[in-house]
Amino acid sequence: MHAFDVLGDPVRRRILELLAEGERSSGEVTAVVREEFGISQPAVSQHLKVLRDSGFAVVRAEGTRRLYAVDPAPLREVDAWLDRFRRFWTPHLDALATEIARGGRARRHDPGSER
Questions:
Q1: What number of helices (H) and strands (E) belong to the chain?
Q2: How would you label 68-87 residue by residue, b for 16+ Cβ within 10 Å and e otherwise?
């Protein structure tokens, strides 16, 4: 499965967001995803399997628990693919940062702005 097919699903993106915060048990992932998306435990398990099979997540056993974590390798591949498009937004973000900095300096130097 192509990386963007995997990432195109909102449930799988949410699972990756959870795993990006740190290793989580399948039960923890299932509880959050069921609450937010209203899907069954078997459906969550299927999404975890897709993430594992596509290389986005790794799993390790700890007793009877299954602990999932992000595998960053596929994300680096996505980042490399996106790199060719960064030129479309980077200058705009740089300009925005400059304007924000200018505004901050202007407020610090304008005694009337501290109301």
A1: 6, 3
A2: bebbeebbeeeeeeeeeeee
Give yes or no for a contact between 52 and 58, defined as CB atoms under 8 angstroms apart.
Answer: yes
Give dist(CA 34, CA 99) in Å, integer.
42
Counting Cα atoms < 13 Å in the Cβ hemisphere of 21 gives 9
Q: Which two tokens stand for residue 55?
A: 């290389």
CA-wise closest residue to 20 among 56, 66, 62: 56
C-beta neighbour count of 108 within 10 angstroms: 10
- Name residues whose C-beta falls within 8 Å of residue 37's C-beta, 6 or more positions apart in sequence: 10, 11, 14
Q: Using only the alpha carbons of the chain, give its radius of gyration.
A: 21
CA 92/CA 53 separation, integer angstroms: 37
Query: Which tens digit of pLDDT belongs to each residue from 44-87?
Result: 999 999 999 999 999 999 999 999 999 999 988 888 888 888 88
Is 0.85 topped by the overall pTM?
no
